[in-house]
Structures are given as C-alpha cells and as structure tokens.
Amino acid sequence: MDEKKTVKNIIIWIIFSLILSMLPLFDSAIQIYLNNLHHEMSQTWIAIIKSVVSHGELYLITLSTLGVGVGELFKGDFKWTMGRVFIIGGSFIVFYFSTSNFTRFSITHNQLDNSFIFHSSMFLLCSAIILTLSSFLIHKTKVIKEKE
Predict the structure, then answer these.
(1) Closest CA to 133 of 72, 86, 62, 64
(2) 20-50 per-residue burial string, b: 16 or more CB within 10 A, e: under 16
(3) Integer Cα distance of 63 and 49 in angstroms
C-alpha cells in the first residue's frame, strides 16, 4: 500500500512540478523552431534548447525542485538520519550554487558565457531531481526498516 502512495507522489511531482514548470521553456523552443521554419533557417534541436535554457530559468526551476524535496523530508515523523542529513546538505549546496549563479547572471545582465549557464544549470537541475527523488524514497526505506 505504501509503495503505491510513494509512486503516486513521485508521478504527481513529475507532472505538476517538473513538467509544468518547464512548459514555458518547451513553448519557447517550439516557437524558435517554427520561426526558423518560417524563415527557412536551419538550427538543430540541441542549439535551440541551448538558446532557450541559457537565460538562467533552469536555476529557478532547480530552486523550486529543491524546495519540494526538502519539504518532503520534513513530512510526518522527522528524525535526523544520515540519509536525511546527506540529502539536506546536498540540497543546500545545490541551492547555494543555483542562487549564486542566477544572481551573478542577473547582475551581469547576460554577460556570462551561455555555455557555462547551460551546462551548470543542467547539472544543478539534474542534481536537484536526484536529491528530490531521494527525498521521496527515503520514506520508503524507513517503512521497510520498521516492518522488519
């Protein structure tokens, strides 16, 4: 029963947190692609995605993803375990770099290298997704240990 609830929570998180937060980026990519078709310009999907993502928006999505993950850790009976300490510590490291990179990007008014923004924001988002999934799954391991 608890396994189904965990899977349901992860699916809801993927649909309503990740996918919905990225819809404006998907829409921008599609608009650029259609504009390129209209003007008979050739641009690969990778180049389109890099141009869309290189404005710092993924840093904000990373921050909201981390918020969900850390919030999930504090649900129910909270106890400081090594897994929770690792996830919270990792989340704060990713939070710090996402915030500082976005702030630096905002202050310099897009004078940072777009390649740096793309790669760092993708890395930090992937890290946030892994940490958030771990937050959901840490409850599952707690339930297994209690049953044994």
Answers:
(1) 72
(2) ebbeebeebbeebeeeeeeeeeeeeeeebbb
(3) 20
pTM: 0.80
**pLDDT at 144 (0 to 100):** 46
For the cut 80, the answer to whether the pLDDT of residue 31 exceeds it is yes
- Can you give the residue range of the structural domain that contains 65? 2-147
Return d(Cα 5, Cα 28) in angstroms, integer. Answer: 34
Q: How many domains does the chain have?
A: 1
* Structure confidence by residue, pLDDT tens digits, 89-111: 999 999 999 999 888 887 876 66
Token code pair at residue 135: 């937050």
C-alpha to C-alpha distance for 56 and 61, rounded to whole angstroms = 9
Please tell me the predicted confidence (pLDDT) of residue 126.
Answer: 95
User: Is residue 120 within 8 Å of residue 96, measured between CB atoms?
Assistant: no
